[in-house]
Amino acid sequence: xxxxxxxxxxxxxxxxxxxxxxxxxxxxxxxxxxxxxxxxxxxxxxxxxxxxxxxxxxxxxxxxxxxxxxxxxxxxxxxxxxxxxxxxxxxxxxxxxxxxxxxxxxxxxxxxxxxxxxxxxxxxxxxxxxxxxxx
Length: 135
Prior knowledge:
- The protein has 135 residues and is mainly β.
- Helices cover 0% and strands 65% of the residues.
- The strands form two sheets. Strands 3, 5, 6, 7, 9 and 10 form a six-stranded mixed beta sheet that branches.
- A hairpin with a 2-residue loop joins strand 1 (4-18) and strand 2 (21-29).
- InterPro entries: DUF6941.
């Protein structure tokens, strides 16, 4: 099954109820996150937007995880049981990962899975802030 997937890394995501719909506000999206030092505990959000879902009834489990450059998992929602509406164009999944232990700088990956199968991946960097030079 083929999906169109976009993963967005950001500082935060706010969800607001608007009638029967939910409006998501992605705050400060980025492809790199700065850390004061490594190792550190970082907080960030991941938004997964998925479209071209042919049969939502077949999707029973959703998982979003974050991996380091060696594919070691540093955060996971775990496998979350879902019951999706029968006819939708797009589905959004948002997670706020708080105080995630990051042991090394460099490339990291946000991954979304349906029923245990990876359907999308986004690379992002975690960088160490350069010290400010004093004169």
